[in-house]
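hi!! sorry for the late reply, been swamped w classes. u asked for the two structures so here they r. pasted raw, havent cleaned anything up. first the sequence of the first protein and right below it the tokens
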Amino acid sequence: MKPRPVRTDLHNVLNEVIAVLDEDIKKRDVTLVRSFTQEPAMVMIDPNQMKQVFLNLIMNSVQALK
């Protein structure tokens, strides 16, 4: 699909992805640490496509840990 960029807070995108993966992360006994700035991280992105990117990156990382 063609990206549909909109002004989006990247922190919200990451928090939503982490919430989806929370159970898998806990089952693997992995601690995920978030360290965001106080200010929103506003970027022009397609939020749905970026959620998929972060979902893949985080899940691959969690699966790679022993």
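now the second protein. again sequence first, tokens right under
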Amino acid sequence: MAVMEAIVLNSIEYKDSSKILNLYTENGHKSVIAHGVKKLNSKNRFLSQNCTIISLNISDKKLPSLGEGELVNEFPNIKKDIYKYSYMSHILELVKNTISDESDHLKMYSFLKRLLQLVDNGFSADTASFIFELKLLHFLGYGLNFRMCNVCGKTENLEFHISSGGLTCREHLDENIHTYGSDVYLVLKALYYLDINKPITLEIDKTSKIIVRHIIDVLFDEFISFNTKSMKIIKQIEKY
């Protein structure tokens, strides 16, 4: 039996009373069969909830079974708030569907765990999602340039151009392509470089959040080509 800590990304109904849990760990993705967890008297019932950190024993089979386990953090404040839960579900969907086996899982697991803790303790769920998504682009190899013009390296009179994934000076801008000035790209830059292990003082107004959401959506359409089901719910809640 192997012991590990894991974040429950989602679960799939399996037979009458069981589930297959899709987990994320310091070693990457793992799926386990949780036998009987749909039964009200199951001792492992609480381990099968999405957006929960658990410690578990699993068998060494190709599709292992969940043995004994314990709850590490159930993030109660996230679970009782549909707004927070939808954003965190969006993040967990991204983890499930975009992070490959070859990734630096130790780094991502630590980051994801810290982000969930922050949101459960009151940090803005939408801002947390912005931070995650922008850093995920870098993690997946689509780093953004907020330092200089992509063409000539100038550091003045810059605009953010979505398709190029960075800044372009006005001399090299195509006047037919929409860009964003410093009032927007400085917010993106702050989110992109923010260290969530240090005190966070960043505040973003509602108008800027709408613009940032649009930019991130376009970036993901162009570079990742994956949209989550949770984001559809979020947009209904936010009325984007």
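hope this helps!! also noticed smth abt the second:
Helices lie at 76-79, 82-98, 105-120, 125-139, 182-193, 206-223, 229-238.
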